[in-house]
Amino acid sequence: MEFVARRDLLALALGLAAAPWPARSAGRFDPWLDELRREARAAGVSATTLERALRGLEPIPRVIELDRKQPERRFTFAEYRQRVVNATRIDRGRRLRAEHGALLAQVQAEYGIPSDIIVALWGIESNFGETQGSFPVIAALATLAWEGRRASFFRKELLAALRILDKGHVTPTRMYGSWAGAMGQCQFMPTTFLAYAVDADGDGRRDIWESLPDVFASIANYMRGAGWSSGYRWGRAVVLPRGASGLTTGLEHKASLARWSELGLRRADGAPLPDEPIRASLVTPDPGDSTAFLVYDNFRSLMVWNRSTYFALSVGLLADELREG
Ligand SMILES: [Ca+2]
After folding, report:
1. Ligand 1: distance of its center to the CA of 246 in Å?
2. What is the pTM of this model?
3. What's the pLDDT score for residue 26?
4. 218 located within any domain
């Protein structure tokens, strides 16, 4: 496996031949792996699957490096949005939404999740399937489960990944993902896969790596599970009244649209807020500038997928661009 560098090579490269590696390791990898194998076997994973998945497995130094890397600085939402919801992605999303229109309409009808939201999640998670990650998932998760930081979280994901192999949804050589084990075109972690991935094309395998019917239905099934209500938006951009102060922002505070109207909020184009009996929260991602959004319960469903305000806003804004295109 080309992605797996040997531990002693890394130590040599760093001039640390005698130093323990990695520093926070709970111990040697092979005895740890034997113990893991016993646990997986006891949980019902077949010996054949374990032999195929774990034979010759080595930790991946690059995964530990990425896990320990600190972000250089926090992006503002304006910067994040420019990277994630740019013109190239909007154009491509519109084209792909049209190309797969019939399939998306079918998935929308079955799950109640708008095509635009499905395509936006697909676009942001993997650039429409193009960037699925180049790490072998079992080796990446084994590295993280062994290395110590967040070990119990990754051990659970590793055991789920072995169950996915055992059920024959994918083979070890095709099971690629991000350094942290997010897999396929929708970047599901293995436990999410077991809970929500769908075999929509009926070949008996939930294939979120190569089958678009499976990818779209899996995304929609997850969003349905996260509580998305069809017929409602995620929220919308708003303008604040001139000189506004004392407005309560944040997801903890909800008020009716009528109340937000009284406080002077308008749609982005200056029109009044819709006259709907729904409650919303005011989100101002970059304090000090005027960018503001009123977000509804569906926004909270997007945050079940990824607990980041930036992420959920970007999915919503990209989906709006796709619908308007
Ligand atoms: Ca399938």
Report:
1. 52
2. 0.90
3. 53
4. no
